[in-house]
Design brief:
Blueprint (H helix, E strand, L loop, with lengths): L17 H20 L5 H16 L3 H35 L2 H10 L7 H13 L4 H19 L3 H18 L4 H10 L3 H30 L47 H24 L5 H9 L2 H18 L5 H11 L4 H20 L1 H12 L3 H16 L2 H11 L9 H14 L9 H10 L3 H27 L3
Length: about 475
C-alpha cells in the first residue's frame, strides 16, 4: 500500500522561510490562473512568467531562475516532445488513410440496439488511443449523429459513451501529452503506467460512458442534427444499427447520393496497427517482470518497448499498413506526416514549459515544503496529487497544464515510492486533470457547439461525465494501491 508522505532529503533545500515559499507558490499559481483565464494568455507564456515570478518572490536571483526554468524545459522537451510528434504522425495517418472510418464502421456495424452504447464507447477508446481528443471528436461526430438517427436515440445516449472513451484515454493512457508529461516529470516506468492506465481506463469508460449515458439521456434529450447526409449513407449492420461512416477521407456505399467508397485499409489491419504501440510498450513491462537483464529476449523486448522506439516502429508500420492500405503514394504519406506537426507545436511548448515550472518548484524547495506539510497531515500521495490536479484544472481549464503542474509539485515524494506506486500517482494526477470541465475549457465549448446544447445542458452531460471519469478513476487507483 502507498505510504503516507515522507520528506525527501534528496530534494533541494528551501531557499527561504516556509512562509515566503508558500507565498511564492501561491503567487505563481494565481498568476498562472489569472493570465490564462482572464487575459487569455497562451499557457506557454503563462507558465514561463509564473515560473520566473515564483523564483522572484522566493528571493532566487533571476540568473538562477532562468537556469532552473531552461533546464526543466529542455529535459521535458527532450523526453516528451519527440513522443508527442510521433503520436501526432500516427494519428494523422490513421485519419487521412480512412483507417479511423474503417475501425468505426467495423465495430458499429456489428452492434445491436442494446450494445450500441458499448460499441460507441469502444470506438471512442480505440480512436482515443493514438489521437488527441479534439481530432478524435471531429472524426467521430458524423458517426455519432448518424448512429443516433438510425437507432432513433438521443445524441447524448450515443455521444456520451464515445466522449468517455476519448476523454479517459486522453487523461490516463500514454502516448497522450498529459500522461507522457507526468511520466517524464515523475520518472515513472512507461510500461507499468500504460498497463495500469488501461486497467483503470476500461471500467472508467464503462461507468462514465454507457452507464452514465442512461441518466444523461434523460436529463438532456437532444435529437441529432441533420448533418453529413450528402456525404454518408446509413446502412443496416448485421446485428442491428450500423453505419458506413463518412468523412472527407471516404464514405460508405449502397446509399442514394453517396460518394463512391475510396479504398481504405481493412478492419483487421487497422486494428492491429492501432494496438501495435500499446503491445510493444507493454511487452517491455512484461520482459522486466519475467526475464533478466542481459538475456537476449529481455534486451530485445526492452529496446522495442522503449517509448521512442515503439512509436517510431508504429509510425513506420502505419506508413505501409494504413498509407499503403489506402493506396496513398509516397508523396501523399509524406504530406500527411508533415501536416501532423504544426498542430502539436503548442502542446509541446506547454508541456516543456510545465517542466520548467516544475524545476523551479524543485530548486526553490517549495515542493519539499509541501511534502513536509503533507507528511504531518498524513495525506496520501495519491489523494494529494489528485486534489492538486483538480484545483488547477478547475482554475485553468487545461488538463495538460493541470497534469504537468501537479506532477511538478509531487516530485519531492519520489524517493518514497516504488515503480508501481509512482505509476499510480501518474494516474491519480491524470484523473484529477479531467475533473468537471466547464466554461474555461475549450473542450467544453467544442462539445457544446457540436452537439447543439445550451450551457446548462452541456454541464448536465459533458461536465458531469468528466467528473464521473475523474472520481471513478481516483477510486480505482486507490483500490489498486491496496494490491500494487
Amino acid at each position: 500500500m502507498l505510504p503516507t508522505l515522507v520528506l525527501a532529503a534528496e530534494q533541494a533545500a528551501p531557499v527561504a522561510s516556509g512562509g515566503r515559499l508558500i507565498t511564492a507558490a501561491v503567487v505563481g499559481i494565481v498568476a498562472l490562473v489569472v493570465l490564462i483565464t482572464q487575459f487569455s494568455l497562451h499557457p506557454f507564456l503563462a507558465l514561463t512568467i509564473g515560473s520566473l515570478l515564483v523564483a522572484a518572490v522566493a528571493g532566487v536571483p533571476m540568473t538562477d531562475a532562468v537556469e532552473s526554468f531552461t533546464t526543466g524545459f529542455g529535459e521535458t522537451a527532450a523526453s516528451v516532445g519527440t513522443l508527442i510528434a510521433l503520436g501526432a504522425m500516427f494519428g494523422k495517418l490513421l485519419a487521412d488513410s480512412g483507417g479511423a472510418d474503417r475501425l468505426v464502421d467495423g465495430i458499429v456495424a456489428r452492434s445491436g440496439p442494446r450494445t450500441l452504447p458499448w460499441a460507441m464507447a469502444l470506438v471512442g477508446a480505440l480512436i482515443g488511443l493514438p489521437m488527441f481528443f479534439e481530432i478524435g471528436l471531429v472524426i467521430l461526430m458524423p458517426v455519432i449523429f448518424l448512429v443516433a438517427r438510425r437507432a432513433q436515440l438521443s445524441v447524448i445516449a450515443v455521444g456520451i459513451p464515445a466522449l468517455a472513451g476519448l476523454s479517459a484515454m486522453h487523461g490516463l493512457v500514454p502516448p497522450h501529452p498529459g500522461p507522457l508529461a507526468a511520466i517524464g516529470v515523475l520518472n515513472a516506468d512507461l510500461g507499468i503506467t500504460l498497463a495500469l492506465g488501461v486497467l483503470v481506463a476500461i471500467p472508467v469508460v464503462a461507468v462514465a460512458g454507457p452507464v452514465f449515458a442512461r441518466f444523461a439521456a434523460r436529463w438532456v434529450d437532444v435529437a441529432p442534427p441533420a448533418l453529413f447526409d450528402a456525404k454518408v449513407a446509413v446502412t443496416a449492420g448485421s446485428g442491428g444499427s450500423g453505419t458506413d461512416a463518412g468523412s472527407d477521407s471516404g464514405t460508405g456505399s449502397d446509399g442514394v447520393g453517396a460518394e463512391p467508397e475510396r479504398r481504405r485499409p481493412s478492419f483487421a489491419i487497422t486494428l492491429a496497427t492501432v494496438l501495435l504501440p500499446v503491445v510493444l510498450m507493454m511487452a517491455r513491462a512484461v520482459a522486466d517482470v519475467v526475464s533478466t537483464k542481459g538475456e537476449p529476449v529481455h534486451d530485445a523486448l526492452h529496446l522495442i518497448g522503449t517509448p521512442l522506439v515503439a512509436l517510431l516502429i508504429s509510425v513506420i508500420v502505419a506508413m505501409f499498413t494504413l498509407g499503403g492500405g489506402a493506396g496513398m503514394g509516397r508523396k501523399a504519406v509524406t504530406a500527411t506526416l508533415e501536416a501532423s506537426l504544426p498542430a502539436i507545436a503548442g502542446i509541446v511548448l506547454i508541456v516543456a514549459a510545465g517542466g520548467g515550472f516544475k524545476q523551479t518548484l524543485v530548486d526553490t524547495g517549495i515542493g519539499q515544503l509541501i511534502a513536509s506539510w503533507a507528511t504531518g497531515a498524513g495525506i496520501s500521495a495519491l489523494l494529494l496529487g489528485w486534489l492538486v490536479a483538480v484545483a488547477i484544472r478547475l482554475a485553468t481549464g487545461s488538463a495538460t497544464v493541470a497534469t504537468v503542474t501537479a506532477a511538478g509539485i509531487m516530485v519531492p515524494l519520489l524517493p518514497t515510492l516504488d515503480a508501481g506506486q509512482t505509476s499510480l500517482l501518474v494516474l491519480a494526477i491524470g484523473a484529477g486533470s479531467l475533473f468537471f470541465s466547464h466554461v474555461n475549457d475549450a473542450g467544453f465549448w467544442l462539445v457544446k457547439e457540436y452537439f447543439g446544447l445550451t450551457v446548462v445542458q452541456n454541464v448536465k452531460a459533458w461536465s458531469i461525465m468528466e467528473t464521473v471519469i475523474s472520481v471513478t478513476g481516483l477510486i480505482l487507483v486507490l483500490l489498486l494501491d491496496l494490491v500494487v
